[in-house]
Amino acid sequence: LLMIGGAYLCFEGVEKLAHKWLHTADDDAHEAALAEAARNPAIDLAALEKDKVKGAIRTDFILSAEIIAITLGTVAEASFMTRVLVLSGIALLMTIGVYGLVAGIVKLDDAGLWLSRKAAAWQQALGRGLLWLAPWLMKALSVAGTAAMFLVGGGILTHGAPFLHHAIQHVVEALGASGFARTLVELLGDAIAGILAGIVVVAVVTGIQRLRHRRE
What is the DSSP letter of 97? Predict the structure, then answer.
């Protein structure tokens, strides 16, 4: 189950990159529809982004399930109460810490707009600063999120497939890396494995989708 989840995370990462660099006519039409929705209040913008929201929820669910499964494996030998407390702590940390932080970042531009309309000059300056920062921060989070998909998904795959793990360790030993350099090489190996696995899964899924379209 962990391996499937890891492969899915890699798939999502590659699909995200492919969507960014390999635009299709459907993608251009969707972007045009979003632009029109932004100009026309009568159009339901949420409905247009429904698939993207569903995909984000699905990815978050799988990532959360992976974290829970790994946590359970870590405390498998502990008492029942310890496992309950650890899982509860992880759940609270993820809900309040991670998703709360993301929610705050999403609302950052709203806070900036609100401050920019205040009377005080320092509040207006702070608001303009937040409005400038928000899109750059969102882009940085997008890049970090994609990298995390490859690192987490690739890490799960390399640890679940002994030959991949041994191959990475062989490279580490051949380079004579130690300390931080060793960790960096291992992470790079996980990321490369994740990217390659994602490419394979995307190719398979794309092939299946094309076959289904031809039959229809």
Answer: I
CA distance 183 to 55: 31
- State the Cα–Cα distance between residues 35 and 116, nearest whole angstrom: 25
CB burial of 37-70 (b: ≥16 within 10 Å; e: otherwise) equals beeeeeeeeeeeeeeeeeeeeebeebbbebbeeb
Q: In tens digits, what is the pLDDT along the chain, a chain of 216 residues?
A: 678 888 888 888 888 887 766 555 555 555 555 555 545 555 555 554 565 666 666 667 777 777 777 777 677 777 878 878 887 887 777 777 667 777 777 777 778 888 888 888 888 888 888 888 888 888 887 888 888 888 888 888 888 888 888 888 888 888 887 788 888 888 888 889 889 998 998 888 888 878 887 776
DSSP state of 48: H
DSSP state of 42: T
Output DSSP code: residue 107.
Answer: T
pTM above 0.90, yes or no: no
Domain parsing of the chain, residue ranges: 2-73+140-215
CB-based contacts of 32: which residues, under 8 Å, 6+ apart? Answer: none
For the CA atoms of the chain, what is the radius of gyration?
A: 22
Phi, psi for residue 157 in degrees, rounded to 5:
-65, -45
